[in-house]
Design goal:
By secondary structure, this protein is mainly α. It has one domain. Helix content is about 75%, strand content about 0%. The protein is elongated and about 60 Å long. This is Integral membrane protein. InterPro entries: DUF6223.
Length: about 150
């Protein structure tokens, strides 16, 4: 296994472990005892923005990797973008899920529930794009180099 793959895997593991350890603290911080204004940045809204940014980064990476794998952009198979989408997408889903699970009120209460659902959807799209590109690159590598004549 190349060193860069090992470092990327270790970074992803540290990120997911940090999210797992931050779950109880995030649930405590997300609890809002009083009503807040429409433009107030609460902890729930901030976490939903983080989840949305992670999901959006994964979706962009997955979309670019998909365009690269079809030959529209560049001349590669897009595996790096697919892996980036498969790391950032589930991270966005986890953060969005935590926000939705910790929310005690509906839209407009400051818990970030709308942003949590949006980051869930965007993270799922990023994961699907990354999986599609990775499956496409595996198919093309096995079909082009597998036979002997």
């Amino acid at each position: 296994m190349p060193v860069r793959h090992l470092l990327a895997t270790a970074a992803a593991a540290v990120l997911l472990a940090g999210l797992a350890l931050a779950t109880p603290a995030a649930a405590h911080v997300l609890a809002q005892p009083e009503p807040v204004g429409s433009y107030t940045l609460t902890a729930g809204r901030a976490w939903s923005m983080v989840g949305g940014a992670l999901g959006l980064a994964g979706a962009v990476a997955g979309g670019l990797a998909l365009a690269r794998s079809t030959g529209r952009i560049g001349n590669g198979d897009g595996r790096r973008g697919a892996i980036a989408a498969l790391v950032a997408g589930p991270a966005g889903v986890v953060v969005g899920g935590l926000v939705v699970a910790a929310a005690e009120g509906g839209p407009g209460t400051g818990y970030g529930i709308v942003g949590g659902y949006i980051s869930l959807v965007i993270g799922l799209v990023a994961t699907a794009l990354g999986g599609l590109v990775l499956a496409r690159s595996r198919r093309s590598s096995t079909s082009s180099g597998g036979g002997t004549a």
